[in-house]
Amino acid sequence: MSFKLPSMTRETSSTTGTGDRSLAGAISGYLAVSVGLSDQDTTWARISLGSDFEEGLYTYNSGANSLTPTTIYRSTNSNSAVNFGAGTKDVAIILPGPSDIPAADLASFRALLGISAAGGFLNKFRNGTMDIWQRGTSMTITTSGGYTADGWIVVPTGASVAISQFGGSLTANTLKVTGASSVTDVIVKQRIEGVIAAALTSQTVTVQARVYNNTGGSITPTLTVGRPGSLDTAPYNNLDVNGVSLQACANGTATVVAYTFSANPNTFDGLEISFDFGNNFSSNAKYIAISECDIRVTPNVPTGLTAAINIPPPELRAIANEAILCARYYLQITNPKFIGIAGSASNVSRLGFTLEAPMRAAPTLTLNGTLPVFYGTSGGATSTTTLNSISTNYSTTQALEFDGGTSASVMSTGYPAMIYQSGTGSISASAEL
User: Is 138-317 in CATH node 3.40.1620.10?
Assistant: First the structure.
């Protein structure tokens, strides 16, 4: 027995009184309750006759083909079961709204659904809102693929595509991919670190995204879910979902696409979730925009293409929380100015910098644009040198160390030192998957 909300389920009943509601057959255009429920399953239903109604939790009895009221939350009989008279009752399986469940009963209702009071089954995508763009909000991505909005990789086939930040609906931003002549495919994907994906292991999992289609015709994206052979190590070619078709996306509209699958016992090694938008980008007038991305545990949702009634509202984290999570994988420090106490080793002058969030692994460090200047003091005297490299000898997941030159006269251990950038540039630290 379990809690289920089968979609498009609606029947009639002629039962009178307040007891079991015997079911008398599906209403035209709908499915019978028996199609979506098994014996002793719990569901949420609304039963009505004229102006009288009751709504709440019911238990399905397959032998009698009936629904037994378990807890009535709303009704025209002071929130108790209605003493229905003669007539044909309408019995509909529906999704309860947030205001339908009294605050005092929320804890028990969450327990019924398998959701913890600490926040439930959380979205495992990072930057599902497409709010964080440390690499810039517009770029060109070649056929070798590359990171765009933080966490999201775009891989075109045939030719390069243009990437830009675009307006959204529930979210302020989307990831816009614009095609060009010779583009024959576009994939948008994210790799989920094993320590985060582990919570999905052996669970029923739903993936969803909101897609705005402006390609000139209807498109049907496909979904692929892959795992690596070892922890967080590409390629992700152990496929749990292999190119299944998602919901069709009409041109000029936004569509929520969603699919539910059974996660593999080795999901703790990590996941790669890929949305493939196909051969629909043959000119720079054609684009898609994706956002509101969510992947989470969804108990009791049937596997396969997810019915609209079973798609959970996406968890859209605050931008400050997304920024901290994204900094675990990539950090762009623009026009840096670091002040501290310098140290030296092997006649190389260095200055350390503590990261705002521990990174997934010791990062790869890159100087971008104008080279920063190292300003140091030695016994009261001051001198400067231009940074032409960054030391990786002492880079860890929580700190960077900058090489100030091989001349010991630049500064002395324990004296104040500073790194600053007078022109346009940045230092990037990457621990991407």
Answer: no
